[in-house]
Amino acid sequence: ANVWTLRAAFSTMTNVNFSQERICEYIRQGGDIKKSLENLVKSKGGKAPTEEIAKLDLSTLSDAELEDYGHAVGFPIRSALMGNDDCFSLNEIGTYGIRGACAYAAHCYQLGKMDENIMSGIHQVFAKLASNEADLPGLLANALKVGELNGQIMALLDDAHASRFGAPEPTQVKMSATQGKCILISGHDLVDLEALLQQTEGTGVNVYTHGEMLPAHGYPGLKKYPHLVGNYGTAWQNQKFEFAGFPGPVIVTTNCIIEPRRIYKDRLYTMNEVGFDGVKHIGHDRDFSQVIKQAQEMKGFPRTVDPPDYHTVGFNHRAVLPLAGQVIEAAQSGALSRIVLIGGCDGSQWDRK
Q1: How far apart are CA 211 and CA 233, in angstroms?
Q2: Edge-to-edge strand order for the sheet containing 228-231?
Q3: What is the largest distance, in Å, between two alpha-carbon atoms of the chain?
Q4: What is the mean pLDDT of residues 288-317?
Q5: Contact, 95 vs 2, CB < 8 A?
Q6: Residue 266: what pLDDT?
């Protein structure tokens, strides 16, 4: 039940595009999940966080009625209901923050790692957000609670990744083409990448990462596959141009998708919370056979770029912290002139640098 709570929260925050019909379908699925969770809580002798949430039933509403209901609980209504700009801002910060935390908690759960205290904290945050109270101290504490939870979740995910794929280590990643058939996978779900690498083994199809999948090359359990040949392209916001130029099918996992161009829409696949009308979707079974077949039918890269271009990834804290003394020494002596911290995947526009 917990993973569905996380997935439902995550699906509202990613940059995905659905038709109204699919949105309504997800809302009704969410209602079913809520009912099953309520029954589970009651069977354990507990009670729902708030009666208002427990009584809310959208399953009988038509698509048009669901749209009307959305307007009744949208941004302007909630802002007016709270009646205090600072309180509303804190409520919004908490709302978006907990959705982001749920995204990574879902990855933890997928990797077999979860902490009941984290799940309890997530539910407490949601209950406070749902109260719509103009409680400035309480909402500030709630927003800080989101930050605390996020730190715990990221630590848990770091441990889950290292346990499953080995501790990341500095690794050179080829950023240029290798001759042959190919598949591009974008996003940050390493379990999806692992499944793709396992299924493409021995098929003659090379795999390239894209966007937030780049750090995968630092994990021993993933880079051991020789057909994980490199990274193609840059960030998610450049996909309309980069996907168009890639000579094979493209898979978008838990990541942002932009309305696809016709030039590559027929070879685009989505997974998990990501979806777009008219784009093929891969189910929870992670069956990539259709993708592999299409890759084998396409031309792929006609030649290997020589000389190749490389970037280095894998500077995980496990690799960096033991060298802290040397780094400080180098900075003090002037041998190290600057340290660049890269945080997040947005902000590529010139005016956000």
Answers
A1: 7
A2: 228-231, 205-210, 181-186, 250-252, 268-271, 280-282
A3: 70
A4: 96
A5: no
A6: 97
